[in-house]
Amino acid sequence: MQKLGLNVIVYSLTTIALFYVCFPFAWLMMTSVKPSSLIFRPDVLIFTPRMDSWIAVLFNSGVPGYALNSIIVGVVTVIISIGVGCPAAYSFSRFKTGGNKLRLVILSAEMIPPAILIVPLFLLAYKFRILDSIWALIAAHTTFIVPIITWFLIGFFEEVPKELEEQAMVDGLTRLKAFLWVVFPNIRPGLAAAAVFGFILSWNDTFYALMLTGGHSKTLPVAIAGYWTFRGVEISKMAVAMLLSVIPALTAMVFVQKHFIRGLGSQGIKG
Known about the structure:
With 271 residues, the chain is mainly α. It has helices at 2-33, 52-59, 63-95, 99-109, 114-127, 134-159, 162-170, 175-204, 207-212, 220-225, 235-265; strands spanning 228-229, 232-233. The chain is built from 11 helices and 2 strands, in the order H-H-H-H-H-H-H-H-H-H-E-E-H. It has a two-stranded antiparallel ribbon with strand order 1-2. The longest helix has 33 residues, at 63-95. The radius of gyration is 23 Å and the shape is globular.
């Protein structure tokens, strides 16, 4: 009887949590296909769906191009961040470079408010003539994604026994080959999770994108914000754009959620 009561509580809490997670997406989907006359009638749940807003956003606006900008920025940022963060995480894990103090510095870098960095980043972008371009945004995104990916990967490197690498070097492999043939295959799931996490952070950024891009270099979050104007809010079109922005992030997280949770759970300052 006690077990039954516990199961009822667990299922009830799960149902409530599922409702809170799914409700925003259901509301966005309904809003995106509602007739304009019913947009401000949340009590109306039965209506004839209209695809006008979807057609307008997908074929008669710059949203697809802005989404492509977001993809390019995210992919390039992740490639740079992995290229810097992977060797750094390996160094922290194997050679204890900088000790715990440097690890704390990296962790602190993740906590720097964007408002502190935006002025120097803006001035640098202006000086190098990359302001209002995706390259300025890529440079800005690396400032917070490189530390996150580095911190994320340290735990995965520490899960690979040093003895495997040492045995490979005893057998005649160089450290580089031991890393590529022994260590790297074991951290590939973590690398994929870190890459997806970094991409999602870049994809969702609005602050830096709003400050450093403009015109044809805008990203999808900025385009979504653009539906809120002094004339009012184009709710239906905004709902479509928001759904388009959510799909890639949700799809990616479904495939790497196990490794993502493992990466977060393995972090810690070790002596």
